[in-house]
Amino acid sequence: AQSVTQPDIHITVSEGASLELRCNYSYGATPYLFWYVQSPGQGLQLLLKYFSGDTLVQGIKGFEAEFKRSQSSFNLRKPSVHWSDAAEYFCAVGVNSWGKLQFGAGTQVVVTP
Amino acid sequence: GAGVSQSPSNKVTEKGKDVELRCDPISGHTALYWYRQSLGQGLEFLIYFQGNSAPDKSGLPSDRFSAERTGGSVSTLTIQRTQQEDSAVYLCASSFPGTDNEQFFGPGTRLTVL
Fold this sequence. Notes:
- The complex is a heterodimer.
- Chain A is mostly beta strands.
- Helices cover 0% and strands 52% of the residues of chain A.
- Chain A contains no helices and 12 strands.
- In chain A, the strands form 3 sheets. In chain A, strands 2, 5, 6, 10, 11 and 12 form a 6-stranded mixed β-sheet that branches.
- Chain B is mainly β.
- Chain B has no helices and 11 strands.
- Chain B has strands spanning 5-7, 10-13, 19-24, 31-38, 42-50, 53-56, 65-69, 75-79, 88-95, 104-105, 109-113.
- Chains A and B meet through strand 6, strand 10 and strand 11 of A and strand 4, strand 5, strand 9 and strand 10 of B.
């Protein structure tokens, strides 16, 4: 069965420091991978997605993610975080052809001054 | 507005009552999804609509849950005889069909069952 694991429930990072959020998936075929962000009281917003091709994908708000098939990982990174990046981040896998998403448990990011 | 809207934003109800949650998708989006976000279960898929039909209802947790979509647009999720474990945020998303199309999420309806 497909699964998505985000090992870190909570991460605290200083403003200006780099951020890396981990995501591991279990999926039989070539996965469709996504990162979403949810700010307090808001719906989910797509940061970036990977379907094929270049394994390093760029997204909005300065985020990037790297797909590593050998490690079944799709980690999200940002070189320098801003206070506005405090939010919950979800990794997701598209599990069928019409777009059903399976989400990880989420990682809460706290940004300190 | 151009985004997905949901109403009400908050709903408090008593155990055993029925509730209806509404989703207005982005105009032109034929695909519509309902998800549930709860503390214990995270984000779970509930149901998928393509147009007015629902080819995948596999995530509906019980027969107390039902959903419909009319005119290829507005969708209503109905929960009958609500239970405390139904308390969650119910999220709606819409998109053009296919995994490679971005799903745009609404702000959600927070349901609290007392």
